[in-house]
Design brief:
The chain is mainly alpha-helical and 118 residues long. Helix content is 45%, strand content 11%. α3 links the parallel β2 and β3. It starts with 16 loop residues before the first helix and ends with a helix. The mean pLDDT is 95.
Length: 118
Amino acid sequence: GFDVEDFGTDSEESCDYPDIAKEVSQAVVEGRSNLGILICGTGLGMSMAANKVSGIRAALCSDTFSARAARSHNDSNILCLGARVLGLGLMFDIVDTYLKGSFSGGRHQRRVDKIEKA
């Protein structure tokens, strides 16, 4: 199982997604959370906002192949999803694949290091 911390939202009201992306990203960078999952309409805004935080490697995934590669090749620490572009069943499959994944290291570590220095 997983321990889950919900960062919101708590209503159907429109919100400023960058605020939530920042909170989740900070929790990951500070080590309070190992991974994060961010969801908005397309996932694009959340991924852009999260990737502004140093140390975050947010991946917008729309299929299980990308979710697996995000973890194994890119050492992604935040998964971003688009609620308006993915069906619920596919979203569950993507989350499951992402959470079960792990970083493979090797030649990918060198590439992740270069991303961090960019």
